[in-house]
């Protein structure tokens, strides 16, 4: 059962780590590039990395804009281990020193399939990320690879989703659609259409980006409708219009769409390579290329109301794992464990 209780444990953890309540903490995310389109209007709702800001009531800044003399005023400084930010942990550690009370946190949410392009020299990744007091990944394969590479504990802490807000959205009437989710990283658009064979509803592709699809003309004949990438709120409405969502993302990932579907109460068939579907849809996740199994599951969700309701209710409870409160709780549990180990080493 997911813990959805009060914030007492969070404050107790913060007292142990920082000697203050969570509401008094100062949090900063540092980067060399800010995706402003993700934080200007919808960061309070969108699932993913930037959701840590409303969770921690913090801010994000470019490293060049940070007053280096004021880094010590922050209790937590977090760096996402993207290729362009790889050096920031060492730069910040050099400023803070090894005795600082500020906790330096590193997270890696790059799927393993993208590591070769992002981190061609694993020795560099190992050297730089070791500067962090606490390291976390967002799905088990990342965590396992990092632990093996680094020889230290790496925590599984999934990026938050605004579950409470998603559950409160006004639901739209579910249309006659089976919606397939497109992803720019794998362009797995044509094969998934086979999984919709024999369903008596319209088939559409969501979140499609023709600029990244070298087979766009072939893709266009596989679906009744193709809807291109759009803003987050419109995308959520498209999900809610679907009788079933099929998300065959083939990379090992957190899988943000799975959390969204679960919180919105949408029956889904998803990739078993994604943490969200393994967590929220254990009875309807399968290999992204097992289109025969996916077809069976899609048809059952369309035709078996009892099974459909069971799947939806389970997902709505399981998604609380990534609610703001539970994400914050897991974050501070990991931070406490990391702090204890560092103190023991000192």
Number of domains: 2
Number of DSSP helices?
Answer: 15
Instruction: Report the order of strands and helices.
Output: HEHHEEHEHHEHEHEEHEHEHEHEHHH
CATH C-level of the largest domain: Alpha Beta
User: What is the fold named in CATH at topology level of the largest domain?
Assistant: Rossmann fold
Q: Give me the side-by-side strand order of the main sheet.
A: 2-1-3-4-5-6
| Topology, number of strands | 12
Approximately how much beta-strand content do the residues carry? Answer: 15-25%
Characterize the structure shown:
The radius of gyration is 21 Å and the shape is globular. Helices cover 39% and strands 15% of the residues. Helix 1 (8-18) packs parallel to helix 15 (324-345) and helix 11 (256-264) crosses helix 14 (305-318). Helix 7 links the parallel strand 5 (134-137) and strand 6. The protein has two domains: 8-160 and 323-345, Rossmann fold (3-Layer(aba) Sandwich); 163-321, Rossmann fold (3-Layer(aba) Sandwich). The chain starts with 7 loop residues before the first helix and ends with a helix. The chain has a six-stranded parallel sheet. It has 15 helices and twelve strands. The protein has 346 residues and is an alpha/beta fold.
Please give a quick description of this structure.
The chain is α/β, with parallel strands linked by helices. The chain folds into two domains: 176 residues, Rossmann fold, CATH 3.40.50; 159 residues, 3-Layer(aba) Sandwich (Rossmann fold), CATH 3.40.50.2000.
């Amino acid at each position: 059962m997911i813990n959805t209780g009060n914030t007492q444990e969070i404050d107790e953890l913060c007292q142990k780590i920082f000697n203050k309540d969570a509401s008094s903490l100062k949090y900063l995310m540092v980067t060399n590039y800010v995706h402003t389109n993700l934080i200007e209007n919808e960061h309070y709702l969108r699932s993913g990395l930037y959701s840590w800001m409303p969770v921690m009531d913090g801010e994000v800044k470019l490293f060049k804009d940070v007053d280096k003399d004021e880094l010590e005023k922050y209790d937590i400084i977090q760096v996402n281990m993207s290729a362009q930010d790889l050096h920031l942990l060492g730069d910040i550690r050099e400023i803070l020193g090894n005795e600082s009370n500020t906790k330096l946190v590193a997270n890696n949410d790059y799927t393993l399939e993208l590591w070769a392009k992002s981190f061609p020299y694993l020795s560099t990744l190992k050297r730089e990320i070791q500067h962090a007091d606490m390291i976390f990944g967002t799905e088990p394969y990342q965590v396992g690879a990092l632990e093996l590479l680094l020889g230290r504990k790496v925590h599984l802490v999934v990026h938050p989703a605004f579950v409470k807000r998603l559950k409160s959205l006004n639901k739209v009437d579910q249309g006659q659609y089976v919606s397939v989710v497109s992803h720019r990283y794998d362009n797995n658009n044509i094969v998934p259409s086979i999984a919709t064979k024999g369903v008596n509803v319209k088939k559409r592709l969501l979140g499609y980006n023709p600029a990244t699809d070298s087979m766009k003309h072939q893709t266009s004949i596989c679906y009744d409708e193709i809807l291109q990438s759009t803003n987050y709120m419109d995308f959520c409405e498209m999900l809610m219009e679907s009788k079933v969502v099929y998300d065959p993302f083939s990379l090992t990932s957190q899988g943000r769409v799975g959390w969204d579907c679960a919180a919105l109460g949408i029956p889904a068939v998803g990739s078993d390579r994604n943490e969200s579907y393994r967590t929220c849809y254990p009875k309807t996740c399968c290999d992204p290329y097992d289109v025969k199994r996916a077809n069976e599951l899609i048809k059952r969700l369309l035709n078996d109301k009892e099974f459909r309701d069971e799947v939806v209710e389970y997902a709505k409870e399981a998604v609380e794992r990534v609610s703001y409160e539970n994400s914050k709780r897991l974050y501070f549990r990991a931070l406490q464990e990391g702090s204890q180990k560092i103190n023991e080493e000192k």
